[in-house]
Design brief:
Layout (H helix, E strand, L loop, with lengths): L2 E5 L2 E2 L11 E3 L14 E2 L46 E5 L2 E2 L8 E3 L23 E5 L11 E4 L6 E5 L5 E5 L7 H4 L1 E4 L11 E9 L7 E7 L9 E4 L2 E4 L4 E7 L8 E6 L2 E2 L4 E2 L9 E8 L6 E5 L2 E6 L11 E7 L8 E11 L3
Parallel strand pairs: 1-5, 2-4, 2-6, 3-7
Antiparallel strand pairs: 8-25, 9-12, 10-11, 11-25, 12-24, 13-21, 13-25, 14-17, 14-24, 15-16, 17-18, 18-19, 18-20, 21-22, 22-23
Length: about 350
């Protein structure tokens, strides 16, 4: 059997392992190419150059059009399909090959900047083989997939709320007697594992004005049902109640009022568990994102799109099922707190 692949553009990159800092590599910044039969580029960026290195860049400037219908294409891939009579054949318009990952390098296959009206405009279906869950919490009925966990006090509640963007609202109790009474949480159940590959958690949270007297954790836990906070921070001492998990956590009992990024692998604390340098923002939305490698060793934590910390070993056990979710607490303060979840996104490869 003959197998034939026709590739319009091949991007080949060598990823040199970074020893420190956060490096960004852009495989392609495409702004205009025509009339090339074949283009194969390869190169190694200079180390520690302190500049943006572009292996391939094509730039155009659109004219000042004053009349008519004008279309200016930066890159056009125009493929004529032959009448094949045998073999197993396929055509790929644009392929970005697999790379070797590095904990110190943020890798992005295709990056779209600001001010575009549309990041992607297609007439054909978009096919993804990844396992994905996303909800924007619009409407008045909570997703059936959510496992709800509530403290014993009646004021500890959660529900969809009709307000801008649509939110799922968690309200902690004002009993002030501990998590068993005060906590409120939800998760998606134990259906996700790091060994699937490319495990991602992302949420956008609005924290109330008294966040500095509360507690919150957001991320992955191996416990889907116990009424307890997955991690606690007292002074600078971190305590995990979960056996496996990785989360952003804030605890009012910590010495410094900032987010922590924490992981635990079979009761072994992750290498790099630490404060992030970023505080929770009262009455403001923040986006928290967690990326876990397939070995469960390396986890990256992002706040509002910025990489703030990387755990480099013992992040989670990669074969343990994890539940993505959000846990909130009044942190033994006799005051109720409201946390709005704008959206929750979870995805992973299918192994």
């Amino acid at each position: 059997m003959t197998k034939r692949l026709n590739l319009a553009i091949i991007l080949s990159m060598i990823l040199v392992f970074a020893l420190g800092g956060c490096q960004l590599l852009d495989p392609l910044q495409a702004q205009g190419v025509t009339n090339l039969d074949q283009l194969v580029l390869g190169g190694v960026a200079a180390a520690d150059a302190g500049v943006t290195t572009e292996t391939f860049e094509v730039a155009i400037s659109s004219p000042v059009d004053t009349t008519g219908t004008n279309i200016h294409d930066a890159v056009t891939i125009d493929i004529a399909v032959g009448n094949s009579t045998g073999g197993t054949n396929s055509i790929v318009g644009l392929q970005v090959d697999a790379i070797t990952d590095d904990a110190q390098v943020v890798t992005t296959a295709i990056q779209v900047g600001d001010e575009w009206n549309y990041a992607l405009d297609v007439s054909a279906p978009i096919v993804s083989t990844a396992s994905t869950w996303y909800d924007d919490f619009l409407g008045d009925t909570a997703p059936a997939e959510l496992f709800e966990i509530s403290g014993s006090d009646a004021q500890a509640v959660q529900a969809l709320v009709s307000e801008q963007y649509g939110v799922y609202q968690l309200t902690s109790s004002d009993a002030g007697t501990g998590c068993a009474a005060d906590c409120e949480a939800f998760n998606l159940g134990l259906e996700w594992q790091a060994d699937q590959g490319s495990l991602v958690f992302e949420t956008r949270l609005h924290l109330d004005g008294d966040i500095l007297t509360a507690g919150i954790c957001a991320g992955f836990s191996d416990d889907e049902s116990t009424v307890e906070m997955p991690f606690g921070i007292s002074g600078t001492t971190i305590t995990s109640t979960v056996v496996d998990g990785v989360m952003f956590c804030f605890d009012t009992d910590a010495t410094t009022d900032e987010w922590y990024f924490l992981g635990v692998d079979t009761n072994t604390d992750a290498t790099g568990n630490a404060i992030t340098g970023t505080a929770p923002a009262a009455d403001t939305y923040q986006v928290l994102r967690i990326e876990v490698d397939s070995a469960g060793a390396v986890c990256r934590g992002y706040i509002d799109g910025t990489l703030v910390i990387t755990l480099t070993a013992n992040c989670v056990t990669n074969t343990v099922a994890l539940a993505p979710g959000i846990w909130v607490d009044s942190a033994s303060n006799a005051a109720s707190h409201v946390f709005d979840v704008d959206y929750l996104y979870v995805s992973a490869d299918r192994d």
